[in-house]
Give the backbone structure.
Amino acid sequence: MINIPPFVQNLVPYKAGKPIDELAREKKLSKIVKLASAENPLGPSPKAVEAIKKGVLGLNRYTDPASYDLVQAIAQKYHVQPNHIICGHGTDSLLAYIVSAFTTEDDEIITSEGTFIGIYVTIRKTGRKLIQVPMKNHGFDLAKILHAISDKTRMIYLANPNNPTGTMINREELEAFMEQVPKHIMVILDEAYTAYANGNPEYPNGVRYDYENMVVTRTFSKAYGLAGLRIGFAVGPDKVIEALYKVKLPFEPNLLAQQAAIAALDDEEFLKKSIELNKKSLAILYECFNENNILHVETSTNFILTLMPTEEFARDFANECLNRGLIVRHVDTFGISNGIRINSGTIEETEFATGIIGEVYQLLKEKNKTKNI
Ligand SMILES: Cc1ncc(COP(=O)(O)O)c(C=O)c1O
């Protein structure tokens, strides 16, 4: 009989936002809008699509394990030395490598409650000890994180901006924090939503720093529209990157992902269009939340966290939206039991969504009237 370690037995498989096809099959709906996975509603970068079409003919060859051309392109774009960069199969994959390369089972990793579920899964599946610190104003409480550091702490994870709350740690806060973190503790700064926050002069932009104990992760899944391709990169001290190459699967990321990412980096027009659309679409969502008195958190990303009166209300809200063809994300698994995360869509998608959001919220308010919520 095979022995499955207790930490694996206790894991819960990752539950992503409901796929559109699945909902269409279940509910026989003619129109479905998915605003549940913080994806880019404009599709992939057109330049990336062209690169993929060309790259297909090279699929008989193994890819370059060092992603040479992509690393050079990233180095140029962000003014970072190539030996400080590693590419991987999305941020998820890089986070798993970072955790397994720099911690052991006896070590503690500190992060916040109410942050990216992927890091919780990664820490738990490797049997590391996860320490979750409560949030402050729906953001990372950096003072409490510092306070939680023990002899066993080896790593701290921050998402900036954060998913699912959309909050941002500013430059001054990050720098003061880094000054106080002991140098033997690695800080992961996950910047998946950097493109949406970058316009803010207070945004720290982690790739500009060269702390000896910080590694920054970025993804092409969001503003570049390549979530399905799986491609991301990490920037950190050369010794850290060298170690990560030792644990990375050799032919990751795949050939098409590497070539598409090079093209996407060059697609300034698409990036600009994505950021502009996001701003307009978020404005429509804010207006809807304000009109309907739906509590929400100011965002620096492409989604907004709304806070429903109770967990049950949030569950019903997500289900009633599903019944009407709108997929939103109940973020109970992220640790926010009454939270519903809704991302920006095309203008048409967002308008469709706000109609449903308003209707469902008022319906549930009415239904729960006697409960005084
Ligand atoms: C904070 C954060 N980090 C990482 C990821 C995953 O990125 P990738 O698609 O590159 O694995 C996400 C995706 O939702 C995210 O919200």
